[in-house]
Amino acid sequence: MSKNLTNFQNQFECETGNYHTFCPISCVAWLYQKIEDSFFLVIGTKTCGYFLQNALGVMIFAEPRYAMAELEEADISAQLNDYKELKRLCLQIQQDRNPSVIVWIGTCTTEIIKMDLEGMAPRLEAEIGIPIVVARANGLDYAFTQGEDTVLAAMANRCPSDSLDNKKEIQEDQKTPLVLFGSLPSTVANQLDLELKRQGINVSGWLPSQRYVELPNLGQDVYVCGVNPFLSRTAMTLMRRRRCKLIGAPFPIGPDGTRAWIEKICSVFNIIPDGLKEREIKIWQGLEDYLQIVRGKSVFFMGDNILEISLARFLIRCGMVVYEIGIPYMDKRFQAAELSLLEQTCFEMNVPIPKIVEKPDNYYQIQRIRELQPDLVITGMAHCNPLEARGINTKWSVEFTFAQIHGFINAREILELVTRPLRRNMNLKALGWTTLVEN
């Protein structure tokens, strides 16, 4: 395996392409729904407002708990008092919604004009009596999913400190608390809680919690484990600022990843996993109808949401051939366990280790796609229609961000998304239609 590991290290490349992803302020879309007593105030220009209107406009009927503070020319040229304007908006939010926390989302413009959000927030918080968390989830990040990373890192600093009183809440058979971090729908979080509980491990809290007032206790005796690969900044904050102990595990995506995630946590708590292998086998058996479609098919990841390594590893286990894994940004330390599982998966499936391209150049990727002619390309929305016009099947990578893909049960959802364009073509051929071919 050591020889194979050396080969694996040589599979990394870094190009100089642009970051073709959404703006990270889009994290508001799922975070305001997860943290039920929160309100998000995005501070930026009209461009940011147009983006939020287009990206999140379909949610307007659900009375979303977010708003846009638009910066005008007078704001940018420092002719207006930023503090007074933000105070007026926050007082209005307090009167209309009465949230437990207001999250200020700083955009690119606040960075450029050096708006001191961190300096104003504590003063205003003391004045109006509502916690204000500042997160600079702006377009200077690598991928749109890192907006959540920025918010959770800021929120980690607001979690209460671990103490002897807090430890009394944990069952006597588990003296060490475990906190999981990453925003998941409540149903999925409950599934993962239940999977760990079956092994005798009780989750003491989640970051973020469903309510801001229920943030987990953190401290040097607390173990933390992530559920998404784009949360490296949060992991660093939890380790360095809050002195927590990070469990480096693969991510619970797919039956193989979920089993490895649970096994790693069990090993830290000195627990021998019970029935995990049988449970994973049973899940794979239930996926056979989808596996028959994807086996032997090839897939190419152009890179968009930093979920690419985990998804590629799962699809290789399903029998697919992965030509290339493009990824906007990767923290090799935070994803070390996932990379190790990818290597192990390729070894067991007897397939070459795919090339991993960080910050890919889309121009060169298109050339490689034309040469390789993969059965499926998973990419950002901007590239799907041009590729489809050239006879290449595509899937929006953003759909994997919003879909429920974590845990044993939700592996079917991943394959539902992956096989949808393949099944569409099968149905078209059955009707006598043929797909477009490039001239």
From TrEMBL:
Reaction catalysed by this enzyme: chlorophyllide a + oxidized 2[4Fe-4S]-[ferredoxin] + 2 ADP + 2 phosphate = protochlorophyllide a + reduced 2[4Fe-4S]-[ferredoxin] + 2 ATP + 2 H2O
Enzyme class of the recorded protein, top EC level: oxidoreductase
Pathway: Porphyrin-containing compound metabolism; chlorophyll biosynthesis (light-independent)
Cofactors demanded by this protein: [4Fe-4S] cluster
Species: Oedocladium carolinianum
ATP-binding as UniProt keyword: yes
Co-factor binding details: Binds 1 [4Fe-4S] cluster per heterodimer. The cluster is bound at the heterodimer interface by residues from both subunits.
The family this protein is said to belong to: Belongs to the BchN/ChlN family.
Any one GO cellular component localisation term in the record: chloroplast
Keywords: 4Fe-4S, ATP-binding, Chlorophyll biosynthesis, Chloroplast, Iron, Iron-sulfur, Metal-binding, Nucleotide-binding, Oxidoreductase, Photosynthesis, Plastid
InterPro entries: LIPOR_BchN/ChlN (IPR050293), Nase/OxRdtase_comp1 (IPR000510), Protochl_reductN (IPR005970)
GO biological process: light-independent chlorophyll biosynthetic process; photosynthesis, dark reaction
Official protein name in the record: Light-independent protochlorophyllide reductase subunit N
